[in-house]
Amino acid sequence: MQVKIDTKERFHAITINESNLAANMTAALEQCLTPILEKDVKNVVLILKDTQNMDEAAAECLVRIQQSYYDAGSSFVICELTPEVEKSLETNGLLELMNVTPTESEAWDIVQMEEVERELLNGPD
Question: What is the mean pLDDT of residues 63-88?
């Protein structure tokens, strides 16, 4: 699986350079995304602008990965979905389970808001 990782101050912007995310790519998705939870910068913005097709198994994998991020107190935002992928996710009832924004800029805003929210809920260390 081809990906481009751009590490910013507060998040990793990960672009998946695959036109099709198939069921047989779920292990590669997990291997790419899960280890980030062990780094200093734990938030991820996943950019799917190049993905034209996503199997239900791959989408379910992303939902599980997203949940693991939130369980660990980190953010995981998906952005720039193509209309085909968005329709497929909606048809399978998975879109509503995902934290999705139209643009990377809006995804970054979500990460910032969630960080502030976590700081307010957790209080000073």
Answer: 96
